[in-house]
Structures
1.
Amino acid sequence: MNAQQPDGLDRRGKENLILVHSFYANSLLLHGLGEFLGDDFNVHFIDLPGFAPHEPPLAEVSLDGFAGHVEARIRRLSLDSFIIGGISFGFSVVSRVRLPPECRGILAIFPFLGARSLAMRRRKKIVYRAVVNAMGASGLGGPLWKSPLLERFAFWWSTYPPARVRLILDHMDGRTFFDTARLILNQRDGARFQDLPHVLILNPADTTIRANYCERMFEDQVKDMCIVRTDLDHYPLDPSADYFRSRFPRGEMDRIMTFLRRPRAEDPGGGAAE
């Protein structure tokens, strides 16, 4: 960890950013995003249990269990000041975290806000829900994950390069994959909006999340917000740092940093939020 100055910035003047990944991803699969954000932040990725080899799965997969894991990792980091971000499903987890006073704001990146926020046809959602519910009830998710049948299906079905599919299969715990998918497809309580400044990053043409639905929810629930619209893919085929640098304008990042660095009304010596 980099040495911290009293104001929470590292010696290069960067804000600390704690980042929680999306579904079937982890810090290695999103290393390009971490590198891109590292231009402006001191990035601390938190891998969820069962999503990476070094994080054993929860005994029972739940949003509260994931949130408790993130809380423990935040305490371990012991940062003087930080921003926290959640990507898609990761935002749903972050929204349930009991954040300490050191947290200055939240990045909501393509946020998942419950099953109603999914951009998925009703028939497809019903089929997927039936499959993952059956996996959970039968306990077959874990054993099936390691089977040659599922491996062949994954390489055939996925649009990702084979090397990335291989990493997902190797890194994820099978029971966690199916139980988390069941949470996503059945989740009615999408998120709990916290009283902090939010940066909402979304793609109006997102094919995974209903951007208009998410934007309306944030406008109804969040008092202090900066909205950034982008054409980034929800699941980029090439999630390299160069991809993000080429698709996310420098001016938009500067706008985010200006918003997050404003003094808040409750900060010592701070003024009212703009």
2.
Amino acid sequence: MATITQILEKVYPKLRKIEEDPILEILRTGSTSSSNPFAGKANAVYSLSFKVPCLFSEQPEIVRAGANISTEQQMYLYLKKSDLIECEPVDANREVGIISLKDRFVFKNRRYVPVEIQELFGLWKIKVVKE
């Protein structure tokens, strides 16, 4: 019986072909930055960038605020962990193949900030908003 990871390995390239092979540029800080949340923008120098093949999904999501219910367009990016490991430059201060909330993404000439990150069966599922 096939596992979910084996199925994703076969389906992922086919989905990329349907979406015309989208590419995502990941921007990263080059040095080890402080984990202090009150440090401000001093650590936000994005000197490393690399490109990774990806999948994307734009879908409406229901947002509830008190008695008001509205829909907003949400964007999800999907990256294979193995593709990320192959494309990512080696940094001695950081583990390879990991996505962080400090990373920034450039997709279709728009810059995005990650809001939520999940690792699912060898895929990174990243919910992003425009910066």
3.
Amino acid sequence: MATTLDLLVLPTYNKNTLGVNDASTYASAPASASLVVTPPGFDAVTLSFTASELNVFDSEDLEISDAGETLVALPDGVYKMVYSIIPEAADAITKYVMRIEQIQEKFDAAFMKLDMMECDGAIKTQSKIDLMSIYFFIQGAVSAANNCAITESNKLYTSANNMLTYFIRNNCGCTGVNYL
């Protein structure tokens, strides 16, 4: 059996953590593994990586916040990951992944607000259509990143974020306080 490297980025449902699982198959156990992660807007950082396990990283690990400081939310955007093992460093793989935890939280808040509002049917229907359009843009950004179309991914993400901000600012006119 030949060594085949693969990574899975798993949702942690937490803005402060990034979960990376080793989905590789190994001819023999690697002596050591290395993961180089480049978060959007930050320099690349080399992380120790435990092969065949789920590895969870936070802002301190990714050098976004200093050691001992309060952990901060990891930025949304395209993360570049280069995984290699020793002694087979030539077999390194590169993956691009669009992280969307912050925009997903923003989307969820808008969605929940919509569900709790009492609007007339036509306005509420249009709001649902608007949210579905935003959702498709978010998923398009993820798909583009998964296919190494980084520029397109960033454009789709920015459009989704702008649409979502506009939606939140100009909701259907309901106050959302009907249940207080």
